[in-house]
Every structure is written in C-alpha cells, then in structure tokens.
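Exercise 7. Given the encoded structure of a 447-residue chain, write a plausible sequence.
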C-alpha cells in the first residue's frame, strides 16, 4: 500500500475515507482520529492489541521475525558492543553518545546516586516482609516530594536533571529495599565503581567484610539491563505515557509504571517462572503434568515465561540471556536443578502441538530468573531488576510523548453495556444483592 493511499470504510450506507500511515519499517495503520466526529463510530479493541496509540522513533520490533532494534541498532549489536548507560543515552536522546557525552552522562549519574537522608525514614516504616516492588514504586513517587522545584514536564532542563536523578537513584532505592528485607545495614553508593558494579556492591557488601567484586557478574548484569531497556508500547510503558499525558511529573509516571510492571503477566513473570520451576521440582520434576495443566482449559494455570503478545517467534532477548546464563553457570560451577527443569520444559513446549499452534515460545522472563539466581539476586528482587533495566525506555517514551505536538491526554472511549436510565429505588423497597449481605470476616476491627 502506498504511503498516500486511503482506506475506505463503509458503514450505514456511507463511505468514509481514512488516511493510511506507514512507518519506516513498512508497518501500516489506518488513521481513525476523526472517525467518531465524522461517523459517530468508535473502534473497540480490548487490551489495545490492534491499536497504535502513538508514532514512535525509539524501538522497532517484529514479533513474527523475532527482531528487536533500538533507534535502528539491533539488540544483539547493543549487547555485544554497548554498555547499559550508552544504551540508555541512545534510547533517551536518539543517538549513541560521543566519548565526551558518555563521560559527562556517566559522571552526572554517578554524582546523583545518594538518596536524601530523610528517605531512610521511609524505608524503616515498611514491614520486613514488604514486597520490594511496593517499596520501589512508593519511593520513586516520594522522590517527587523532594524535587518539586525541578519536575515541570515541559521544561527540558528540569527533565534532564530528573532523568539523571532517576537513573542514579533507582538502583540505590532497590538496594536499600533489599537490605531492609534481610535486616542488613544499607550500603551507600561507591562513586569509584561503574553502574552495575555499584549495584552489586550495594546489594551484597556488608560493613564487616572486605567486598570482592566479580566483574563477570557485573558485565552479565549490564547485559541483562540492556536486554530489558525498552520494548515499545508494552503495559508499563503505555502506563508511563498515559499517566504522563496528564503532564503529571516524570517521577509519578515512573512510579505508576513500576506498579504496572509488577503484575505476573508482565515483569512479575520472572519471579513467577522461578516459583513455577520450584513447584515442579517439589512435585517430583513432573514436567508433563504442568504442561498438561497449562493446556487444560478448565485450569487457569499458564506456563510462566511462555508466550508474548507481540513475539510469535523466539524472543531474541531469551536467546541472548540463555547463552549468558550458560556461561555464568559454567564459570561459577553452579548446577542449578531448576535450569534442568527449565530446559526440559522448553523442549516439551517447543514440540507440543498446543504451544506450536499458538506460537508460544519462551520469552525474556523464562531465563532471566535463572541468571538472576546465579548472580545471587533473590526472587522477590527480580521484578525490581527488570524495572532498573526498563527505566531508560520508560524515560525515552515519556520524553518523546511530552515533546510530540500530536500528544493529547490519554482518554479511551468505551461501549456502555450497563442498565439504561431508570428511576431511583427508595432503600425500603430494594432487594438484597445476592452474596453481598454479610460484612467482611474481620479478625480485629482495624486490621
Ligand atoms: N501457557 C499456556 N497457554 C498460553 C500461555 C501460556 N503461558 N500464553 C498464552 N496461552 C494461550 C492462551 O490460553 C490462548 O489460548 P486459546 O487461543 O486456546 O484461548 C492463546 O495462547 C493466546 O493467548 P492470549 O492470552 O490471548 O495472549 P496474550 O497476547 O493476551 O497474552 C501473555 C500474552 C504474555 C500475557 C501470555 O502469553 C501469558 O500469560 N504468558 C505467561 C506470562 C508471561 O510469561 N509473561 C511475560 C511476558 S514477556 C515480558 C514482558 O513483556 O513483561
């Protein structure tokens, strides 16, 4: 279809001409922006699976061919040749940084890693068993309380400073959340280390011992972060855009994205994968039983780490992680029985008609959990690590949105299916709604 071609829609005996918009990689869309005004019709698309909510120059992915590129560079190339901070710069500012730009960017981030000391009090208030994603999202939103004078979404200088603060402080928040959960003292950032070395030290150092840094582990973490850096309009990124479209500050948009990422169908899947593998191990390694359960339409069980809304082929990120995972496990001499189960599961699922027909391949979360385990990161922290990785993508998408003149506040429509207009019923004449008579079964009134 040529770029200037029109699509014709015929409804109620009338014809409507719609513009066709074609992307740089040939993706085609029908522009329905004026459809409701012209015809009274809206489009209905649960989960927005077939809806383009923006035009974006950041990430291209082709789910049929298993291609993922950021600003034109393939994920394989970036993993091989770039660092996470270079990739972050590329995503946010559009080009790979020059040597001096990268040095300045890195220096800025390094010098903003400390949290305001008052934030320590917030950590104390959380229960010991608090999920670190609850802490992360709350803390990220709390940052907006400390930097109110520099969070105007429309001021580029404010944005540049907020970008640096977020990239610098989120790893510190993550590490403090972890230390809080295990009752160890917080380890402050070390400006002599690079981004991932610093993360590893803040997680694993203790004040009573010399800390030995493993640069291979830091490199593997850097690669993991690159692999998660952006994935176009996924659930959490769309959340950033939706929240940000109201011109809410970037901290609050990123905090909302953390909440969206937490769900087991999104970033929470990496934790869910390990829990599933654990369950299979405890159940006598009965892989077939769980594959059958995933296929059973009467069961809500799904094979975690399989399937993707967009990839209908092997997730290219899963391929890269799998290789690194094998390398780190071999170097550390780790034999992880969960990896054996993962491999069996992958094999069975790749050959099973149910998975083949539906094009359900292992996704990025299938192997990332195993690699995090090998790096010593506990499973409650997996989604937090995903958030650290996804941060540059969220920021880049937010920045693109606020500077795009086509942006409008996000406000989808609906097809109403509730009752039509009716008269108010006085309370004495109402019937009880079945199942809603008893109150909650409370143990104590204020629990
Ligand atoms: N196990 C078993 N069946 C599955 C699975 C699975 N993991 N995923 C999809 N299906 C089936 C589903 O039941 C449906 O079957 P049918 O056509 O017979 O009704 C069909 O495949 C299509 O599934 P869908 O739910 O319509 O697909 P979706 O695009 O809405 O969902 C997904 C995508 C990722 C939420 C889903 O595949 C899933 O729940 N996977 C497990 C969770 C997971 O690994 N999530 C991480 C995604 S990658 C990282 C990220 O982006 O955050």
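Solution.
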């Amino acid at each position: 279809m040529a770029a200037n071609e029109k699509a014709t829609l015929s409804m109620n005996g009338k014809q409507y001409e719609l513009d066709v918009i074609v992307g740089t990689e040939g993706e085609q869309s029908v522009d329905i922006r004026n459809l409701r005004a012209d015809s009274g019709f809206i489009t209905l698309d649960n989960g927005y699976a077939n809806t383009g909510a923006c035009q974006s120059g950041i990430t291209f992915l082709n789910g049929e061919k298993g291609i993922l590129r950021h600003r034109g560079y393939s994920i394989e190339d970036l993993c091989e040749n770039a660092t996470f901070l270079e990739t972050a710069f590329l995503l946010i500012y559009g080009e790979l940084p020059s040597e001096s730009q990268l040095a300045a960017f890195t220096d800025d981030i390094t010098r903003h890693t400390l949290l305001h000391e008052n934030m320590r009090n917030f950590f104390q208030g959380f229960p010991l068993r608090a999920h670190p994603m609850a802490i992360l999202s709350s803390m990220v939103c709390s940052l907006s309380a400390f930097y109110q004078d520099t969070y105007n979404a429309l001021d580029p200088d404010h944005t540049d400073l907020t970008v640096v603060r977020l990239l610098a402080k989120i790893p510190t928040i993550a590490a403090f959340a972890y230390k809080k959960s295990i009752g160890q003292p917080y380890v402050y950032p070390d400006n002599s280390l690079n981004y991932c070395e610093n993360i590893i030290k803040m997680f694993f150092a203790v004040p009573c011992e010399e800390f030995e840094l493993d640069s291979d582990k830091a490199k593997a973490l850097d690669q993991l972060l690159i692999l998660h850096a952006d994935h176009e309009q996924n659930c959490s990124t769309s959340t950033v855009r939706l929240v940000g479209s109201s011109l809410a500050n970037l901290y609050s948009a990123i905090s909302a994205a953390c909440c969206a990422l937490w769900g087991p169908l999104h970033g929470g899947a990496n934790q869910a994968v390990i829990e599933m593998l654990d369950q299979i191990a405890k159940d006598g390694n009965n892989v077939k039983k769980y594959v059958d359960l995933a296929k059973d339409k009467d069961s809500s069980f799904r094979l975690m780490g399989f399937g993707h809304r967009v990839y209908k082929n092997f997730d290219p990120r899963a391929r890269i992680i799998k290789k690194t995972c094998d390398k780190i496990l071999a170097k550390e001499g780790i034999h992880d029985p969960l990896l054996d189960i993962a491999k069996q599961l992958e094999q069975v699922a790749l050959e099973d008609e149910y998975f083949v027909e539906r094009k359900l391949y292992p996704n990025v979360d299938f192997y990332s959990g195993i690699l995090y385990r090998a790096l010593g990161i506990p499973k409650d922290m997996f989604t937090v690590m995903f958030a650290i990785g996804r941060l540059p993508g969220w920021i880049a998408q937010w920045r693109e949105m606020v500077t795009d003149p086509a942006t409008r506040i996000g406000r989808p429509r609906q097809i109403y299916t509730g009752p039509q207009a009716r008269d108010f019923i006085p309370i004495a004449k109402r019937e009880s709604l079945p199942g809603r008579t008893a109150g909650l079964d409370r143990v104590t009134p204020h629990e």
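Remark. The pocket of carboxymethyl coenzyme *A is lined by residues 234, 265-267, 269, 294, 302-309, 358, 360, 363-365 (CB under 6 Å). Students should compare their own answers with the one above.
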